[in-house]
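pipeline: protein-struct stage 2 | run 1193 | MFS transporter
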Amino acid sequence: MEEADDRLIEAGTPVFRRTTLALAAAGFSTFAVLYGVQPLLPVYADDFHVSPAESSLALSLPCATLAVSLLVVSPLSEVWGRKPVMVASLFASAILTIIACLVPSWHGFLVLRALTGITASGLPAVAMAYLSEEMHGRAIGLSMGLLIGGNALGGMVGRLIAGVIADFGSWRIGLGTIGVLALLAAITFWRALPESRRFTAHRMRWREVPGTFTQHFRDAGLPWLYAEAFLLMGGFVCVYNYIGFRLLDPPFSLSQATIGAIFVVYLLGTASSAVTGEIASRLGRRKVLWLAISLGLLGILMTLSGNLYVIVGGIAVVTIGFFGAHSVASSWVGRRALRDRAQASSVYLCLYYLGSSVLGTAGGWFFVHGGWTGVVAFLGGLYGIALAIAIRLSRLAPLPR
């Protein structure tokens, strides 16, 4: 029984604080490396003479390679162990980011970004599996929220650093700074994360791997949670991918540094993920998920305003709603998957990053042909479907204890 296992990590203990610090640092590193380029998309469009949709490949391409790589890396963690895979992932991603800032050509830069997506895949699903195995049920909602909070903090700091430095200096210096910070976060993670206490390595029979993934699609809830990951992340990334193009143009005509500063609202995502995770642990995930998605939909509609303050408020509301929903859905996956949790988490994150890649790039078509109104119509459809799924999940029968 879970309650009788003294190896499980309880909230408030020293080992809980060490674990959450380490995984927050890991989330910070991974998201800074992946999403630090987002405010630079208009800069890439100008410097490399590519379209807005093509410039989005700097983000969409690593998200796509990460999504596919997750399906390979998570089974490897069952053999090699959770911590070794995550440590290798963080160090490799940081080093590739530092190298990428030195490459002169657009295609060479994209190749390194694609490789960064592959190396970054060793962290997300494995971290979720680690928490599902090591944390007590009473602590998993908070710990998952803090992990996602680290993701949000990394996304915010990466975007802010890149945007501000690009305005006053060079985007290459900004990206190199992100790489150095990611390297420091990797060192922190390596030294702080406790070794697994409830993980047992086992020999992987690769012919059996497809079955470890497909079994999760027979569950009554997991496929719907995977759909939520695809829709919510795809819509969220679209907001941040193209809002910069809108705010650079009249009537706003903001500077790159100002647009980068707007990403400070990511701090709200840090708080939202932890708070929503804790609320979901108390009230139940089925009662909280649809409310978080509704909040995100409200924020999307707010960005239609012609008032800059309302637009920034809308971005903040979208961020709070998205990270709250992601915190609930991702921890729900860990609780519903009774076996092969790394694979269950990797499928969720595969769809999560595919949504970022596919829908994030598709939003560029709506922006080119319909402006920001076209993007909002696209996002409204995505979040409307996500809300309908969340309502369906609220009626899902719980698993037997």
